Each structure stands twice: as C-alpha cells, then as structure tokens.
Amino acid sequence: MSTTKNLENQLDIKFIAEACDHQRVSAASKHHLIPDVVKGLMKSWSTKECYDHISPVSIPSHRAIIDIIKQARRILFPGYFTSASLHASNLEYYIGKETTELYDKLCEQITMAIRHNCRRQDRPCTNCEQSASEMAYILITKLPDIASLLAQDIRATLEGDPASKSPDEVIFSYPGLLAITVYRLAHELQKLEVPIIPRIMTEWAHGETGIDINPCAQIGPGLFIDHGTGVVIGETTIIGKNVRLYQGVTLGALSLPRDAGESLRNKKRHPTLEDDVIVYSNTTILGGDTVIGAGSVIGGNIWLTESVSTGTKVLLRRPELIYHNSPKT
User: Fold this and answer.
1) Helix axes 62-76, 197-209, angle to 10 degrees
2) Given 66, 253, 283, 326, which is the most exposed site by the fewest CB atoms within 10 A?
3) Residue 201, in any domain of the structure
4) Considering only CA atoms, which of 132, 135, 225 is closest in space to residue 174?
5) What's the pLDDT tens digit per position in 295-305?
6) Enclosing domain of residue 300
7) Does residue 2 belong to any structural domain of this protein?
C-alpha cells in the first residue's frame, strides 16, 4: 500500500515539474534590457528634447484642483452634492466651513502655480504666497455673483428645454450646466491671471461633458447649452445674454499659420454672439471679425465666416431626398 502511495506521489511531482513553465518564462524575461530604455529616457530629458517637471518646486495637483471644483459646487448649490442633511439651523455653519476650506485649498494650489510659473520663466520673486492669498480671497468674494449667474443659466435651461422637469434635474444631470459652472469659476481665476489652474479646470469639465469652453471666453448670463457634446467655445469668443447653443456647435478661429502661437496671441480670433442668439446643432462659426447680431437664429449644419445683422435667420436650403424602393417580387 505504501509503495503504491509513493509511486503516486512521484507521478504527481513529475506532472507538476512538467507542467511548470517558470524556468522557461524566467529565461525569456526582458528585465535586463530595461536599464537601456531608462538611459534613453534620461538622455532625452537631459537634452531637453522632451518635457519633464524635475524640480524642487511643486506643480499644482490635478486631483486637488478637481477637489476644489467639487467643493465650490457644494457651496454654490448647497444640499445637492453633500452627504449631510442641511437645514436652516446648520446652513451657515456648513457654508462657513466649506468656504474656509475652499480658501485654504485655493491658496495652496495658486501658490504652487505662481511659484512654478516663475521658475519656468526665470522671473524674480513675486511674493507668491501673499499673491495667492489675495487671489484666493477675491475668488471667494465672487462666489455670490457666480451663484447668481448660474441661477440665470438654470432658468434659461428651464425656459429653453421642454424636457427639463425641474431645477433639481438641471443641477444634477445637465452636462451643459456642469461645464458652465466650471467655466464661471475658472474665468474668475483667469481674470486674476492665475497660471495653469483655470485651464486644468475647464479641460477636466471638457473630459466630463464633451463641452470645451476656454476660460478666457467672455460669456454673459443665461447661457443654455442643450445636450452639449462637441460644443467648442474658443479663447476670444464673446457671448451675450440669453444665448442658446446646441450640440456640435463650434465658435472657433479661422485657419491659422504655423507661427500662430506667437503672432496671434492675445488677438481676437473667435466670433461674437450678441444677446438672444440661437445656434442649432453642428454649426461652425469662425473668425474674430464675425459678429452674430442680437436675436439671430443660425440653423444647423451651417459653416459661417461672415457677420450676420440683428434679427437674421440663416438656414440651409431644404435638401432633396431621394428614395429608392426595392422592386416587388
């Protein structure tokens, strides 16, 4: 009996040895080649061929900036994005706590942004902590105005979209409002000339919603972006009050030369939409001299590079539809 058992154990060991491919896999490993790849990377960074951030100066934290956006939304829309129940007796305490924390986070990230920018551009000391404290406080003082603007954006959505059932639905669900909220926060920081952070904010919103709004754009109250996916609002765009944009709308620049980054920097390259303009889906409006007059309606699938006077409707001629019916058998 024991001889049979020993034989079975030997067979099991042999089977395991045959089945195990550890030695074959180890022999095929490429670990020893990785150091040469690392040396190549180090060479590209040392010659400045590629980009890096190897510095004792901290760069702003992408995750921290997203946290700032979410905290600002909790302040601007109290009770919507919180786990705690809010009521009259604790609202002031809650808003005070959130706003103080927001100020502290802004100070930290803006300080990093200024310090990083100074080092990159070899600027003299700009008293970054003091400047950051002032900028953060100014943004905090703008929060009531931003809340008022967003209330007008929400009302424009309710008036312009029969599918919207309530302000709650718009605040919770509409990508257009999320993109506009982030833009309005980022725009105030942009006006203060805070480096890099405004663009990080709006590009995060772009990734979340498919709506790309440059923080430098100037947008009046009552903006309604319906559906939103594919909307692009360029850097020097000016949008008046109560404007409505549908999905796929581009407010962009005309074709740019190779040196456009420097030669056209800070020049008006994107269109102006005056008050009460409606632009339907998949329309492209280009050029810094292009002005869409107040009350105009621009139909869908249109390419426009010239100005339109007040109260104009721009529509495509109805296309001819051709139907082919299969022959009956």
Assistant:
1) 70
2) 326
3) yes
4) 225
5) 999 999 999 99
6) 230-256+266-317
7) no
